[in-house]
Amino acid sequence: MESGTSQSKEAQKKKLHWSTSLGRQEIEVQRYLDGKKLVIPFCHSAEMGCRDYSLLLERVVTDFGADVSFGQVVEKLQEHYGLNIPASAVQNITKKHAKVCYDLLEEKEGSSIKADCLIGEMDGAMIPILSFEPNESADRRKWRKTKWKEARLSVVRKHNSTSKIFLATLGSTDRAGTLLGCCAKRLGWNNKSKVHCLGDGARWIYEQVDRVFGAQGEYLIDFFHLSEYLANASKSCCKDNPKEWLKKQQTRMKEGGCNVVLAELKTYLEPKEESDENAPVRRCLRYMKNRKGQFDYQSAIEKKLPIGSGEVESGNRSVVQKRLKIAGAWWKVETAEHILALRCVRINGDWKEYWERYSPNWVEAA
Fold first, then answer.
1. Considering the entire predicted model, what is its pTM?
2. Which pLDDT tens digit goes with each residue over 217-240?
3. What is the CATH number of domain 110-219+312-349?
């Protein structure tokens, strides 16, 4: 009996190991049967299972995974921590926290500090998307579909402030507009706020500004996008000195002379039989006529408001393209959506708050 009891107690013990930023950790733990369920008290209290990764290590992995490919994360972990973690584990950890970051952004509340004037911008960037269609072939490589899908980025900041809030989506234009409103709410948008918005002339941007902000919002075409159309037209309007002609039209636009510029363009309009490809004046004229009321640069300059949407365009490079357009990367829509949320959490300054909310043990572990 004594021998049997001893063997029984020995069978209840098991070595447990997990990976940390300091290397592999291993201890012997006690196990119990609760009915037919095996219970390990240490795993319950420490929120740690065998072959798991510590909270600090998960943070390191997610931090790297938000910026570089999962394969490069493996190399960085080996270089900085001497750890050999498979790329599949890196991918699973990063995707897990990216999904929770997405849920966190959905729960963020508006600021109690009211804002008088906000600057809002929206733009899109194409990213590579991978999808699979049902097929009898067991080799998924033979029936996968690749395409490009637009990721829409919204950014809002307070007037005369450099602090920004970014949110991005691969969803509908309405979803992008809703996120623009969420950005504004986080910075104190209220029923008395004025929202000055800019975009490159895409119709969906103007429509979302109107839908979300209504009479509180005003929309301006990015001055540099307009200048590109005028620059192309300048070669036909003034072959001898196109740069001087362009500068003159830019000055007119800034001084409220939109109608004067339109009249000038009409005098150089190409014949109808000329194709659009060879008719830069026609393209410029059409671009401006289709966007009436969106060129009030004079008013914006007088109020010391921006007339260019450079912030969202640089944001597209740093928030969207830097991670989601790296060589060889193809994404599922839901994964790309979550990674965008992860990157927005970091750039918006919510990184520390995320980890504190993710686990009560984080504060003690940190």
1. 0.86
2. 999 999 999 999 999 999 999 999
3. 3.30.420
